[in-house]
Amino acid sequence: MFSLTAFLDGFGPLIMAARFTLLISVLGIGLGLVIGALICAAQLSPYPALRRFAAVWVSFLRGVPLLVQLLLVYYLLPVVGIDVPAMVAAVTTVGICASAYISEIWRGAIGALPPGQAESAAAIGMSPPDVWTRVILPQAIGLSLPALVNELILLVKASSLVSVVGILEITRSSQALAATTYRPLEAYVAAACVYLAINLCLAGLGRYLEHRMAI
Amino acid sequence: MDPQILVQYGPMLLRGFGLTILCWLLGTVLGMALGLVIALAQRYGPKPLRWLLQVYVEVIRGTPFLVQLFVLYYGGPMIGLRLDALPAGILGLTLYGSPYFAEIFRSGFRGVAAGQIEAARAIGMSEPAIVRRILLPLGLVSALPALVNFSIILTKETVILSIITVPELMYQVQRMSTETFRFLEANLVLALFFWGLVETISRFGRRIEAGVTRHLTERP
């Protein structure tokens, strides 16, 4: 039977563990934004070699399951002699994986701007860097915000996979809870509730941003 | 890698690959079927049912697949739902995919021009006939790219089934690597394999799309 007390008791440790889920997701998306911007720039660059590199980067990271990527990095780092805490490795992997999706989001946002914007900016004599920093990027970043919040929701869910390499986030913590209380149903349903609460808040933020952007 | 290892583990890996494909196919087909039912129920069902389905969609989309599998496989027996790993995995994939498919169908149906439905009603078609002969054929075509896209995402989700000990490819590769201590090579090969698989499926998907939407594209 479902024990309500065991279910409610689970929330204490799970909410503590939620800090790590949020930390991984937020750092992951931060890293993803930086690398994603570079990859997006490479995709839009006039050099075929850079474009090809970016295309392979995106295709590989979107074609390989995140769990495989995590284990690959986990086993690769010791071989190449890099000794970092599991947390750093996990955030890096999640961020690199997110960069592939984020670069596509930004490419889409830049592509969605009417070409007249850049043309008229150039026509009134703005230099190319000015066209980018003052006309294209401010609009493209605004347009991409709802999609980026969506990506953050995906990352919160994807971060459950780093439990496999031993980081005590929500999922790992619920496994420990299930093992110590012998009540797996309550522990995992409680974990699902914590994830749901986080993601509903984020989805609300996304809708708010979408509303603000749609002027 | 030592060829001896491949000879020894080849059959095991092949079985794992077969199971990965089986889980993916069943999960996709069943998830799509359930998603279609949900989308139709959300369109034509009574209000309480629509509200209930909306909660279902939000809950499944708001929680990680891994946690859903844990609830199903480890939590299920506590309320009498005792499943082996493989059926639990396939059921999990189906439940996980269904709300995403439902949303895809829903937006596909929204893409059907209202005039088409009104015209069908005006010439006296019954509501089921409209669904079968107008809504589905038109809606499915516009939903196709998104359906293919999500099916590809599901191929990658099958590796998560290894965590609840479904002996699919990922599981077999992990077993092989713990027995041979070839962790890096094994995972690298697995990554390349999935890359190839996903690229193949998406190429195949684009071909189907081109075939189905031929009447919509301009002729040279």
Mind explaining what this structure looks like?
The complex is a heterodimer of chains A (215) and B (220). Chain A starts with a helix and ends with a helix. Chain A is flat and about 70 Å long. Chain A contains nine helices and no strands. Chain A has helices spanning 4-9, 11-44, 48-63, 66-79, 86-112, 115-123, 128-158, 170-181, 184-213. Chain A has a single domain (15-167), classed as Orthogonal Bundle (MetI-like fold). The longest helix of chain A has 34 residues, at 11-44. Chain B is mainly alpha-helical. Chain B has a domain at 23-165: Orthogonal Bundle (MetI-like fold), CATH 1.10.3720. In chain B, helix 4 packs across helix 6. The longest helix of chain B has 42 residues, at 3-44. The mean pLDDT of chain B is 88.
In short:
The complex is a heterodimer of chains A (215) and B (220). By secondary structure, chain A is mainly α.
Give me the Rg of chain B, rounded: 21 Å
Q: Which word captures the global form of chain A? A: flat
Based on secondary structure, the structural category of chain A is: mainly alpha
H-E string of chain A: HHHHHHHHH
Number of individual domains of chain A: 1
Straight-line N-to-C gap of chain B: 51 Å
